[in-house]
Amino acid sequence: MNALMTNLQRHGVMYLQTGNCFDKYPADAGFNINASDTYVQSYGSHPAAAGYYTIDECLSTLIPGAFAQYDRLRRLDPDSVTFMANSATPSCAVA
């Protein structure tokens, strides 16, 4: 990861680390940003680290967990951004 971000930095590109919920699937410990505080702090210290991608059109029932994740990331890496792509469809309307 460090090598990738160093190369991106050379080209003026910053990186959003993924750790997102998607559809009916919550973000879980399979993503490093959810599994390790040390990983988040190490990632966040790299100059090419822009922040985190945490929601990819999840069901609305997963949004509270995503905001808990956001709060944790904000505490561990306060100068980062968090990107969320929300779907406007409530859980009850999804088949």
Structure description:
The protein is globular, with a radius of gyration of 14 Å. The model has no long low-confidence stretch (mean pLDDT about 90). It contains 4 helices and 3 strands. The chain is an alpha/beta fold.
For this entry, give a set of tags.
3-stranded parallel sheet, 95 residues, 4 helices, alpha/beta, globular
Strand content: 25-35%
Number of strands: 3
Please bin the fraction of helical residues.
Answer: 25-40%
Tell me the span between the first and last alpha carbons: 37 Å
Poorly predicted runs are none
> Can you summarize the main beta sheet?
3 strands, parallel
By secondary-structure content and strand pairing, the structural class works out as: alpha/beta
Q: What Rg, in angstroms, do the CA atoms define? A: 14 Å
Q: What is the residue-mean pLDDT, rounded to a whole number?
A: 89
Number of helices: 4
Side-by-side strand order of the widest sheet: 1-2-3
Shape summary: globular
Order of helices and strands: HEHHEHE
Give the SSE map.
Layout (H helix, E strand, L loop, with lengths): L1 H9 L4 E9 L8 H4 L1 H8 L4 E10 L4 H14 L4 E5 L10
Parallel strand pairs: 1-2, 2-3
Outline:
This protein is an alpha/beta fold and 95 residues long. Helices cover 37% and strands 25% of the residues.
